[in-house]
């Protein structure tokens, strides 16, 4: 799907429009943890726009993006510049190691995600994961929506906040910090569709009191996790 061109056909911009928002969430975690990484790698960097945005905010950091899709690599490699490099291939087939590794909306796409996470663990001293929380009470009542998520954007595995954190623990990570991100509310594309705007009203109200409860009942949230290898 990612190497044949099928994914690009279904998602023409490779989600680049979401990248400024995702980069802002990552920067929020970097700043609240007072991180000053010399090297940052993003595995499955897609269009490369997240790293491009971080590059502008962290002038002392060298950035590297790994991508297995030739189509995505063609997009991201055009953004190569000083301190920002992209590589076509699998990071896990190299011996490289970094100060901070970003895994942003990635492991839900990987068939054997447990093995992937276990192998990834030795590639950095710190990690930031962004994990879509596709499972909620509302999503379970809308199976067609879940299947669209599976076949449209390739989410083979779906999580709640609790199962996402358990997966990281089971594969050898210690969670140091985490917070919910409200892409369902904040991404620009979700502020233009009338149906989504109306659906977001109860999500917004409940989310002010408890993002965890809003994610569990109504969905529209992801989890950003800062972790280290155990």
Summarize the structure.
41% of the residues lie in helices and 21% in strands. It has 230 residues and is α/β, with parallel strands linked by helices.
**Number of separate helices:** 11
Please count the beta strands (DSSP E, at least 2 residues each): 7
Shape field:
globular
Task: State the oligomer.
Answer: single chain
Task: Give the distance, in angstroms, between the N- and C-terminal Cα atoms.
Answer: 33 Å
Beta-sheet strand percentage? 15-25%
**Main sheet: strand order:** 3-2-1-4-5-7-6
**Overall SS class:** alpha/beta
**What string gives the helices and strands in order?**
HHEHEHEEHEHHHEHHHE
Q: Roughly how much helix do the residues carry, as a percent range?
A: 40-55%
Radius of gyration (CA) equals 17 Å
Mean pLDDT: 92
Strand count, sense and barrel status of the largest sheet are: 7 strands, mixed
Low-confidence stretches: none
């Amino acid at each position: 799907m990612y190497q044949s061109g099928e994914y690009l056909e279904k998602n023409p911009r490779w989600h680049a429009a979401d990248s400024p928002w995702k980069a802002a969430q990552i920067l929020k975690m970097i700043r609240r943890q007072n991180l000053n990484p010399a090297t940052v790698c993003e595995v499955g960097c897609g269009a490369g726009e997240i790293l491009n945005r971080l590059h502008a905010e962290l002038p002392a950091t060298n950035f590297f993006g790994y991508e297995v899709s030739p189509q995505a690599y063609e997009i991201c490699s055009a953004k190569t510049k000083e301190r920002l490099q992209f590589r076509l291939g699998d990071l896990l087939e190299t011996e490289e190691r970094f100060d901070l590794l970003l895994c942003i909306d990635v492991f839900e796409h990987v068939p054997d995600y447990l093995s992937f996470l276990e192998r990834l663990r030795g590639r950095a001293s710190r990690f930031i994961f962004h994990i879509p929380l596709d499972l909620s009470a509302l999503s379970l009542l809308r199976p067609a929506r879940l299947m669209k998520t599976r076949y449209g954007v390739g989410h083979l595995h779906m999580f709640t906040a609790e199962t996402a954190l358990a997966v990281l623990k089971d594969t050898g990570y210690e969670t140091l910090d985490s917070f919910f991100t409200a892409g369902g509310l904040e991404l620009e594309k979700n502020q233009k569709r009338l149906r989504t705007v109306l659906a977001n009203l109860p999500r917004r109200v409940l989310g002010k009191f408890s993002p965890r409860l809003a994610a569990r009942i109504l969905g529209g949230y992801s989890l950003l996790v800062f972790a280290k290898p155990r």
